[in-house]
Amino acid sequence: MTTAHHAPGESRPGGRTARTRQAVLTAVFEELDEVGFAGLTMEKVAQRSGIHLATLYRRWRCVEGLVCELLTELSSDVPLPDSGTLPEDLRELAHSIAAFFAEARMSCLIEAVVSAAARDPQAAAVLRSFFGERLTLAGRMVQRAVDRGELPADTDPEGVMSALGAPFYYRILIARRPVDRDLADSAATAVWAAARAGAYTRRSGGGPANETPPGGS
Q: Element (H or E) spanning 192, and its range?
């Protein structure tokens, strides 16, 4: 992934519905860049996109639905590395994540989606689905490493990928500082070392090995 993003839906041909979606998501992207999530309204998106306001409400219901779909759209084209070794795959993916969030409007977008999910059940469901799908997809990198014998056989792929992404979201949402390549390198190095040590192996009950049992300490 590079930081030169195309307009959402730009390279995806289709009929009238596809063109409507492209126009709307492009308008959302541009509005977020100009006014941020706080200034985003359905009316502004309708005006910029040229799509009737009633259509926006019927299909997306609210601005939260719009920003969640935009995040899904922008992330769907991110390629997953397959270098032949997990350390390099983790490093390449971490650098891609850092490049993605180096753009201010990308950080603004994830902030908007998380904010939306905290208030709107529909947005929360979309966010859970998005991260679930991305973790499953990225987990294939880890499964390949398991198959090559790089990691313990009972390693949880989604646990590894969750750990890789966590430092970025902490930096953006909690520390509220920019992400950079140093963060990417340290995240990839730490996750590789922990995965090799068995930190993300599944327990017999199906959870990660380091998960505290209910009622445990």
A: helix 181-196
DSSP 23-66: HHHHHHHHHHHHHTGGG--HHHHHHHHT--HHHHHHHH-SHHHH
The two tokens of residue 85 are: 């070794």
Q: What is the mean pLDDT of the chain?
A: 84
Q: How many angstroms separate the CA atoms of 23 and 204, rounded?
A: 49
Number of Cα atoms under 13 Å in the Cβ half of residue 26: 17
With b for 16 or more beta-carbon neighbours within 10 A and e for fewer, the 9-33 pattern comes to: beeeeeeeeeebbbbbbbbbbbbbe
Helices then strands, each counted (H, E), the chain: 9, 0
Residue the block writes with tokens 């590894």: 160
Per-residue CA distances from 167 to 106, 115, 158, 204, 207 (Å): 16, 18, 15, 28, 21
Classify residue 2 by its DSSP letter. Answer: -
Q: Which residues of the chain have pLDDT under 50?
A: 1-13, 204-207, 209-217
- The pLDDT, as a whole number, for residue 215 is 38
Write the single-letter amino acid at 100: F
Name the β-bridge partners of 208.
Answer: 202
Angstrom distance (rounded) from CA 123 to CA 177: 25
What confidence score (pLDDT) does residue 14 get? 55
**128: its two tokens:** 């859970």
DSSP for 143-168, please give it. HHHHHHTSS-TTB-HHHHHHHHHHHH
